[in-house]
Amino acid sequence: MKRILSLSSFLFFFANFILFGFSALGEERPNVVLILSDDHSWTDYSFMGHEVIETPALDQFAKESLTYTRGYVTSPLCRPSLASIFSGLHTPVHGITGNDVRNGRDGKKRYSRTEGDGARVYEQMYAGFEKRDGIARLLTQAGYLTLQTGKWWEGKPQRHGFTHAMSHADPFRGGRHGDKGLEISRKGMKPIRDFMDEAAREKKPFFIWHAPFLPHTPHNPPKGLFEKYLAKGESKFVARYYAMVEWFDQTCGELFMELERRGVAENTIVIYVTDNGWIQSEDSERFAPLSKQAPYEMGVRTPIMMRWPAQVKPKMDQETLVSAIDIAPTILKSLGLSVPASMTGLDLRDGLALRKRDAVFGFDGNHDMFEVNDPTASLETRYVVQGDWKLLLHDAENYGLPYAGRSLGHPANPEGKPELYQVTVDPHEKKNLAEQMPEKVAEMTKLIDAWWKPAG
Prior knowledge:
Elements: H1 2-19, H2 21-24, E1 31-37, H3 56-63, E2 66-72, H4 78-87, H5 91-94, E3 100-101, H6 116-130, H7 135-141, E4 145-150, E5 164-165, H8 190-202, E6 206-211, H9 223-230, H10 236-261, E7 268-274, H11 297-300, E8 301-307, E9 315-317, E10 322-323, H12 327-334, H13 351-357, E11 359-365, E12 368-369, E13 379-386, E14 389-394, E15 402-403, E16 406-407, E17 419-422, H14 438-451
Parallel strand pairs: 1-6, 1-7, 2-9, 2-10, 3-12, 4-5, 4-6
Antiparallel strand pairs: 2-8, 7-8, 11-13, 13-14, 14-17, 15-16
């Protein structure tokens, strides 16, 4: 019996050494915090060059991080974008192409989450996503305590691997996209502090999905911040949005200070990304065209940052293309965990592999899914960014479908023709070069078709 126990102990130690070499050598496994802002354009940070908005906490974080300024999300809409970040899969693969589900393309109403066919459709989606190897489940299996806060669309978080969650996801109590979880940061950080306390008591590493409802509407910032930006001559709508961005920055500073106060900042991987972009309308609370729900730079570009003191060297990279699907495999590889074969993203620490890949892709679908088993049903645009260039290929049937009474297509392209932009010199996509450069369009069309081409 002694020999069996000894052998078992040896095998257990060896497995942990292979899986967590740093832990087997007596070092603690790193914690992981994933910060996701909500409806926040890539330009709207001081460190990205905004001349009015002040983001001191994120500016400092960017200096301490491996910061990629040319990051891209997989969709300009929050639910599919967040699903990609969580699963490491592109939109056509995980199949969540929009926020809500409509009864067919021409249906007048969205399905209810609580009744009949609607309840069955949403359960089908939650169950399908549950089968994916999301980062929460993989980290929980590796011995982490895992917490969901903020935005969350896929039903009860625990069924996707979280050990702890703020959101209840009960549709009969208003569960849709985060419910109680949406209070994080807007109403303080107590749930995160309590969770960290529990992880410390249990002597376990932790993972936090931190997706606060900021700077998302409602734009109701602290009065002092609103007045600050109003005094700078902005319209009341723009001033409120700018104030929301700074409020979000302040809450990030609170989180960073909490990690410092507990003495765990040095051994915590913190990654930052936004879910999709936003241009604030000057004369309404709504977003302006070519941002949220549209595959243009102001809708899909984001800085992606990774801070891990003593392990990842800070660098401001303004050239390399990275994708939100790179986040999940980066976390897993950083912890010494295996990356599922379904995850095709790369390690953000591997600059050589990122440059060799050379292109990133995305899928833009209608706000409402028309058919949950067919990602092509509500497809509006496929996009690819390669080097200096970006190509958008629009679906002839769905392009420019109105949402909330307005079209989300490019005003200069009502027909939905291909759009080609040299985004390194034209980041706001004012000059479509597709007709002038048909060879480039053909070359990049082959590239995007090789990535994903709708059936038929």
